[in-house]
Amino acid sequence: MTSSTTATHAIVTGLAARIEHVRHKLYMDYFFSFPTLFDNLHRTTRNCCGTVRPNRKEMLKNCGHQMKLKSGDLKTKVKSSMTAIVWKDK
């Protein structure tokens, strides 16, 4: 673990190392998921999906609570291999 790697990043990458050549997809909740981890996993050919809080470090700008959405609206933002989808329910 380097100084820039968080404990949760190290835990997830350590667990994901067990399925390196299996082609599984990882699904995470907001506690474990953040953009740096997603980029790292994508570089090692592991696909992942998860909910991310809009105020996370390195999250796409103007994504989340700052967006003015009406009920039923859906917005997407793309940055290299990451896609963020924001929607508003009823």
Q: Which key phrases capture this entry?
A:
alpha+beta; 22% strand; 90 residues; two-stranded parallel sheet; two-stranded antiparallel sheet
How would you describe the overall organization of this protein?
By secondary structure, the chain is of the alpha+beta class. It has one domain (7-87). Helices cover 21% and strands 22% of the residues. The chain is built from two helices and four strands; from the N terminus they run αβαβββ. It has helices spanning 7-16, 35-43, and strands at residues 25-28, 47-50, 74-79, 82-87. The strands form two sheets. A two-stranded parallel ribbon has the order 1-2. A two-stranded antiparallel sheet has the order 3-4. Helix 2 links the parallel strand 1 (25-28) and strand 2. The longest helix has 10 residues, at 7-16. The chain is elongated. The model has no long low-confidence stretch (mean pLDDT 80).
Quick synopsis:
By secondary structure, the protein is of the alpha+beta class.
Contiguous runs where pLDDT drops below 50 for at least 5 residues: none
Shape: elongated
Average of per-residue pLDDT values: 80
Output the structural class: alpha+beta
Rg over C-alpha atoms, rounded to the nearest angstrom? 14 Å
Distance from first to last alpha carbon: 43 Å
Main sheet summary: 2 strands, parallel
Provide the spatial order of strands within the biggest beta sheet: 1-2
Beta fraction of the residues?
15-25%
**How many DSSP H or I helices?**
2
Total DSSP E strands: 4
**Count of discrete domains:** 1
